[in-house]
Amino acid sequence: MKNKTVVILGSSRSFGNTRKVLDSLLSIRNDIDIIDLNKFDIGYFDYEFKNKNDDFLGLMEKVIAYDTIVFASPVYWYTMRAQLKTFFDRISDLLTEGKKDIGRKLRGKNMAVISCSSDKELINGFAIPFKKSADYLGMTYLGHLHTWLNEKKQLDDKVLRKLKLFSSKL
Question: 139, 107 in Cβ contact below 8 A?
């Protein structure tokens, strides 16, 4: 069976620069699904689980059907966008009694990251939360690809080559 891959898009703009990168990825690999976190109601993590009836658990039940999970985010203040951080925080829900069966299904899956910013260089440390989360959850970390758009708001040839190489790892 072919590896099933999903991209979790965590951006304020569903069709912003990060989505342009993902559209280019889809032109290379049309077998990848995209889940836009803007289409879901996902509340912040809280220790009393007041958000248990939002969209998070239903979404995670869909996500765990994939072999490879790619997180895509613009770079905001040197880190992932708030939508994606909230999603990551809610993974804590899957580590508690009653939901551990869902959390355990992340073991053995692949994780990768795509970031996008206006800078060609990315400050060290952006990928640390992803790598450490993959390690903690028993996932295989496939790496991080940083992308950017040129002055014409397009991906230049260097980024497209990097994206093509990265897509072969997924």
Answer: yes
Q: For the domain made up of 5-167, give the CATH fold.
A: Rossmann fold (3.40.50)
The pLDDT value recorded for residue 5 is 97
Domain spans in the chain, listed from the N-terminal domain onward: 5-167
Q: What is the pLDDT of residues 17-39, one digit of tens each?
A: 999 999 999 999 999 999 999 99
Left (φ > 0), alpha (ψ -120 to 50) or beta: where does 142 sit?
alpha
Q: How far apart are CA 69 and CA 139, in angstroms?
A: 10
Burial 121-154 (b: 16+ CB within 10 A, else e): ebeeebbebbeebbeebebebbebbbbbbeeeee
111 - beta bridge partners? Answer: 69, 141
Question: Which residues of the chain carry a pLDDT beneath 50?
Answer: 1
Q: Round to the nearest angstrom and report the end-to-end CA distance of the chain.
A: 14
Over the chain, what is the mean pLDDT?
94
CA 139 – CA 12 distance, rounded (Å): 27
